[in-house]
Amino acid sequence: MDHFLTLADVIATHARLTPQKIGVLDSTRSLTFLQWEKRACCLANGLLALGLKKGDRVALLAYNCIEWMELYVGLAKAGLVAVPINFRLSPDEIAYIARDSGASAVIVQAALCDRVDAVRPALSIRPDRYVHIGSSAPQGYQDYEALISAASHAAVPVAVDGADLFALMYTSGTTGRPKGAIRNHAGNAQIAVATALEMQFSRNDRGLLVMPMCHANSLYFCVTFAYLGATIVIDDRSSFDPEALVAVLAHERITFTSLVPTHYVMMLALGDAVKGKYDVSAVDKLMISSAPARKELKLAIMDYFSNCKLHELYGSTELGWVTLLRPEEQIDKLGSVGREWAFSGAIKLLGLDGQEVPEGEVGELYSRTPYVFDGYWNNPEKTAQAFAGKWCSVGDMARRDSDGYIYLVDRKSNMIISGGENIYPTEVEYALACHPKIKDVAVIGMPDDKWGEVVKAIVIVHPGQQVAEVELLEWCKERLAGYKRPRSVTFVTEAAMPRTATGKIQHRLLRERLVADAGGS
């Protein structure tokens, strides 16, 4: 696969063709493609001078910042493997990923050094291979800028081809310990081409990355824009600020961004006076993903961003993009995640017997994408479970309608079994989410001596609203079969709802907390 241009190759190409064009920026600085290329070469040569060699893994821990793009390109030039770590993880979780990946170096933002320091004795990493990003220099760390300044910007003497590892992307761990999904350089190239063609991106686009840059969503979109030679804008605020985001969309003339429904809800809630201060007419395309979006929300998005084409996707770290609901389908196929991307291959829905289920019935979703991952790092058992020949699954359950549109039902691991009946939480969540006073909801199974599990709803209400448990239980009576209805409702604040970095509710963690509070097992 040596005919694939790596991410490092394309930045070098843009540095020759459009050296003065801004390739990437955040709120503190910007880099032309030529500057980006030179700093990435310096970073690569600096890391190799520490004794790192092709194939070594480098753990990365940072909030969103411009350095992520230097790191992804610099590591690619050196043939080193990026191991992005979610900044929301605990020290023990960080240590687990560093050890599991066999990381030989750590590059960490200064504000997060305390988390690394807490577990440093448990890591088998040379003292001189701890590098920090930031203005202050914690004791025991090399300075990132000093490392770059001391190194040469000459071409890096390492041969890297498409089959070589680019990154180990650790999954969010919603169903247990995170697993390292192996992504190669050829997969990067293929997903970039597929995304650009399907969504009609060009070098004139300006893409805003809001989702964490340690996550596959931002990685896939940043790679797409990098391959095109478009401009990448990084939202580097430490917390989500809806007005600040609208301001960036306006001031930077952003043409595309990818957000979760919560982001859109918060922006649209700003009010007409605030939203009216900003010209968002440059926004041409928007992506919504990671959680279901209601009809009212989609209509409100399209009303405010009047020039945009709204897309909804389904994909994963392992599979890449799988399905796409295109702009003209948003309302007619509400609740669907669309059909296959034009360049993503095919989809099968398989039952427990391994055979395809009939139209309208629920089965486990398998796809065959050209950019599928290479397996889980050091985990042949989980890798074998994910593949059925050339078909791959991450455990999502779905059904297909007569027009070929896919509707996600739930994760197989989230399924509730009550009295022998299979209950998919997403179906119950959708029924509750239609209540006008509910902002968000999660449904889990709680242990029960009689039924095995019973359905429980955890609800966040809209600010200023109040609703009683009995009202919601009555609401469900009109919309769900008896065995699917929640037996109880717990009301929580937004802060109390455990989520992944992309806004997905962590059902497993939520269940563990509530079972512990109830004194169960």
Can you offer a commentary on this structure?
The protein is of the alpha/beta class. Among the domains are: 7-193, Rossmann fold (3-Layer(aba) Sandwich), CATH 3.40.50; 415-517, GMP Synthetase, Chain A, domain 3 (2-Layer Sandwich). It contains 16 helices and 27 strands. It has a nine-stranded mixed β-sheet, with helices on both faces. It has a five-stranded parallel β-sheet with strand order 4-3-5-6-7, sandwiched between helices. α1 crosses α2, α1 packs across α3 and α9 (242-251) crosses α10 (261-268). The relative contact order is 0.09.
Q: Based on helices, strands and strand pairing, what is the structural class?
A: alpha/beta
N-C termini distance: 50 Å
Oligomer: single chain
Query: What is CATH's topology name of the domain at 7-193?
Result: Rossmann fold
Count of strand segments: 27
CATH architecture of the domain at 7-193: 3-Layer(aba) Sandwich
Strand order of the largest sheet: 2-1-11-10-12-13-14-15-16
Specify the overall morphology.
globular
Output the CATH class name of the domain at 7-193.
Answer: Alpha Beta
Q: Report on the biggest sheet.
A: 9 strands, mixed
Helix proportion range: 25-40%
Our estimate of the beta-strand percent is 15-25%
> What gyration radius follows from the Cα positions, in whole Å?
23 Å
